[in-house]
């Protein structure tokens, strides 16, 4: 019966459409560590794509130009071009490509915009040190030496150098409300909150992790922060009070990646225990487990070395699709209403992934400094799902549970039917 179930699922899985790649020239002797693409990121307005291509270098490319090259050349790789004083003249107002030397290995990347995705909760909107326009776009880089460097995306110039962490800055995330509050996650077991509208002043140190912090992510309304790390830890923080809300328990190994759904009703966490868990962050319950090994391994096996470590997880902006990167050389595309992948694609030594802003493309970085791109499986969201997302953007699970509606609808709105 189990074998028959697997065969049926394999028939339903399609191959994801590969659309292009960004390759970095590599010398034959250059096979040592330091080349990894630990992070890829899309700008909030979709104008830029950035990736850490190894050896201290971060490349910023206009996303529309990059995508156009893929369409024009089929699946041909596009190599990054080095900026120079004698470089190609770019029309005024058009996004420019930048290659930035960060001075050390880059582990984390994050775009920050002073234009909020929704009404900002920030009171102090005056820049003290820099007079930036309303369309300011920043790039934060987390380095091997514990520093966080802030760059102007449009010019490639260094703006701030934040020094307080004592170990590798593994991940960075900006509040999506336009306040330019930045959170850094480090191997020094802390998270630090920086106010870039106040000259990069450090506002708070969040302590609680007993080991390395791998990743952090804001909820869409910027009120909650999730941080994950070694020793199975998943923490939720109140970013108004800078206090711990709760710890989520369910993983059996280090947790290395996390992301909220666009409506904030779901939280996805990826772990070396071969699983992605979908949580209700409002009440701390497990709604769905996406298994990358069948049958699911025992906690002892999942807690050790295996070839199904999940390296990264990303939520698509349609709120339906999820992507995961694993050590079994696969990229998997999932939907929240199915427990088996909808599409798969081969990827050797994948480390990270992120969806484009419109949700149509997935970018994945690998150990050789390259980035590969796939089209997200197409599908039309139901009207029910769109209504659910609209409602959950403004209502918590607790509030939904008090609505005078039939239990079946209440369950659907709470994502309890996953």
TrEMBL record:
Stretches assigned to the SOCS box domain: 382-418
Q: Which PROSITE patterns match?
A: SOCS, WD_REPEATS_1, WD_REPEATS_2, WD_REPEATS_REGION
**Pathway(s) it belongs to:** Protein modification; protein ubiquitination
Q: Does the keyword Repeat apply?
A: yes
WD repeat boundaries?
132-161, 162-204, 206-247, 248-280, 310-344, 354-374
GO biological process per UniProt: intracellular signal transduction; protein polyubiquitination
Keyword list, A-Z? Repeat, Ubl conjugation pathway, WD repeat
SUPFAM superfamilies the record matches: SOCS box-like, WD40 repeat-like
The name under which this protein is listed is WD repeat and SOCS box-containing protein 1
Species of provenance: Oncorhynchus tshawytscha (Chinook salmon)
């Amino acid at each position: 019966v189990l074998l028959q179930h697997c065969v049926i699922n394999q028939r339903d899985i399609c191959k994801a459409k590969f659309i292009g790649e960004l390759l970095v020239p590599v010398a034959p002797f250059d096979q040592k560590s330091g080349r990894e693409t630990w992070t890829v990121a899309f700008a909030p307005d979709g104008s830029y794509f950035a990736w850490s291509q190894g050896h201290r270098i971060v490349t910023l490319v206009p996303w529309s130009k990059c995508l156009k090259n893929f369409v024009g050349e089929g699946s041909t790789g596009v190599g990054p071009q080095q900026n120079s004083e004698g470089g190609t003249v770019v029309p005024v107002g058009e996004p420019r490509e930048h290659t930035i030397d960060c001075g050390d290995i880059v582990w984390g990347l994050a775009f920050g915009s002073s234009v909020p995705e929704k009404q900002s909760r920030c009171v102090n909107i005056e820049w003290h040190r820099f007079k930036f326009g309303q369309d300011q776009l920043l790039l934060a880089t987390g380095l091997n030496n514990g520093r966080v460097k802030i760059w102007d995306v449009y010019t490639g110039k260094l703006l701030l150098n934040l020094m307080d962490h004592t170990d590798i800055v593994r991940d960075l995330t900006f509040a999506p409300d336009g306040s330019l509050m930045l959170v850094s996650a480090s191997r020094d077991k802390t998270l630090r909150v920086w106010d870039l509208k106040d000259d990069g002043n450090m506002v708070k140190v969040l302590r609680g992790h007993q080991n390395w912090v791998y990743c952090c992510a804001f909820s869409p309304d910027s009120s909650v922060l999730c941080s994950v790390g070694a020793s199975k830890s998943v923490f939720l923080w109140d970013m108004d009070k800078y206090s711990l809300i709760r710890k989520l328990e369910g993983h059996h190994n280090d947790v290395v990646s996390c992301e909220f759904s666009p409506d904030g009703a779901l939280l996805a966490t990826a772990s070396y225990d071969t699983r992605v868990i979908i949580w209700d962050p409002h009440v701390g319950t497990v709604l769905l487990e996406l298994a990358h090994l069948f049958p699911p391994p025992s906690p002892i096996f999942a807690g050790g070395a295996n070839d199904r470590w999940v390296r990264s997880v990303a939520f698509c902006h349609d709120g339906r699709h999820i992507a995961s990167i694993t050590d079994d050389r696969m990229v998997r595309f999932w939907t929240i209403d199915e427990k088996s992948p909808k599409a798969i694609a081969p990827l050797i030594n994948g480390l990270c992934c992120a969806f484009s802003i419109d949700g149509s493309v997935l970018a994945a970085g690998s150990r050789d400094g390259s980035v590969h791109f796939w089209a997200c499986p197409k599908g039309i969201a139901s009207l029910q799902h769109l209504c659910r997302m609209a409602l959950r953007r403004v209502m918590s699970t607790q509030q939904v549970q008090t609505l005078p509606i039939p239990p079946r609808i209440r369950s659907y709105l709470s994502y309890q039917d996953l």
